[in-house]
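SAMPLE LOG
Freezer: B-3
Tube label: C17
Construct: single chain, 326 aa
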Amino acid sequence: MLIDTHNRVHNYLRISLTDNCNLRCFYCMPDETYHFMPNQQLMQADEILALAKIFVANGVNKIRLTGGEPLVRKDAGEIMCMLGTLGVELTITTNATRVHHFLPDFEAAGIRSVNISLDTLQADKFNLITKRNQYDIVKENIQRLLQQNYRVKINVVVVKGLNESEINDFIEWTKTESIHIRFIEFMPFDGNQWKSDKLVTWQEILAIIGAKYSIMVAENAPHDTSKNYTIPNHKGSFAVISTMSAPFCSTCNRIRLTADGKIKNCLFSQEETDLLQALRNGENVLQLIEASLQSKHKELGGQFSNNFEQINASELHNRSMISIGG
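STRUCTURE (predicted):
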C-alpha cells in the first residue's frame, strides 16, 4: 500500500494524458498563447501503462484519465483499452466535445462513469467561457451517455459574477435526468486570476439552492471530495466540492501524474518528482513514489489554509490547472 506520514492510504491515481485542450476556459488555461508540451516530453502509451502497473501493484484500484482534454490525444483510445486490462475502476474527465468519437473505446475499456466539465447551460455564455462554439455538441454527447446508461457527473466551477445565477438551472436539470451535478469552488492556480471575492462557497451554494428547493443530505463514500445531496422527487442529485471553504484533506487518497510524468502528491503541491525520466533510465520508480508520499503535507499542499480570504494567489507556487491535469 501507498501510505503517507498522516496514515492516509492512496489508492486513486489520476493520469493526465495531455496538457492540450480544444477549449480555452480562463480558470484552467492561463491565456491563448499557452505553449503545449512537445510530444517527446509526454508519457508515451507504453510508459503510461508501465507506470500505471507499478501503482496498481501497490494498491491503486481506481484510475481516472484527465487532461487538458484527454480525448484530443490521438492514441487516447489505445491508452484506455490498455489500462482497461489492469482490473481497476477506470473513469475519465472530459469536456465532452469529442465523446461521440470514443464511445466504442469507452465500452472496450470498461469505462462506465464519465465526468464532464460544463460551467453554464447558456450557449452564449459557454462561448464566452471557453472561447469556442461547442455547446450543442457537448449537450448532445451528454444525452448520448445518459441514453446508454453511463454514470454522468457534471463539474461546474462556480465563479461569482459569472454563473452563480445558473446554480438552480443545473438543479432543475436533475429533476428529469439521472445526472449528478458537482458544484466546485473556484480554486487558485497559476495564471487563473483567482481572487477571494470571486469565490462562491459551499454554504452560499446551499443557500441559493435551499431558497427554492428542499435539500436532503445524501451518504458520502469514505474518500469523497464532494458533499452529496438530493432533492425530493428529482431523478438526479448534486454535490459541492468545498476545497476552499471546507477542505477534505484528512481523507485524501489521490495521487496525480502529470502528462510529462511528474508525480504530484497534492493538487496544490509545489514539489514534483519525475517518474518518467526515472522509468526511462531504469531507476527504482516505486522508491520515488513512496518518497513523494512521505513528503506530502497535511493539507492544501502546505501552501495555504482554509482561511481563503487571506490568500494572496500571486504568492502561490504551482502549475496552471491545464498542466496539472484535472
